[in-house]
Amino acid sequence: MRAVAVAAxxxxxLYLGWRIDDGGPTRAYLELGAVGAxxxxxxxxxxxxxxxxxxxxxxxxxxxxxxxxxxLDFNVGPARYGPEVGxxx
Length: 89
Hints:
Blueprint: E1 8-19, E2 27-40, E3 48-59, E4 65-72, E5 80-87
Antiparallel strand pairs: 1-2, 2-3, 4-5
């Protein structure tokens, strides 16, 4: 039996958001911040990179906790997606 290594992407972000909608029951935010990404167990090469980010996010949060599905597309390679859990203050 042969073990198969599964590549992983770890992505950390720190950002500030400003509410940009009309103040109704749904919310939309403009976000600016910094990001750091690191791959591990990649069969070709492990790597890490950091940079700035900008986004518009809309969704539902309950209290201080949010759970979302993130779709991330870099300028090289296939897009990545997966679960995201966050705490807001």
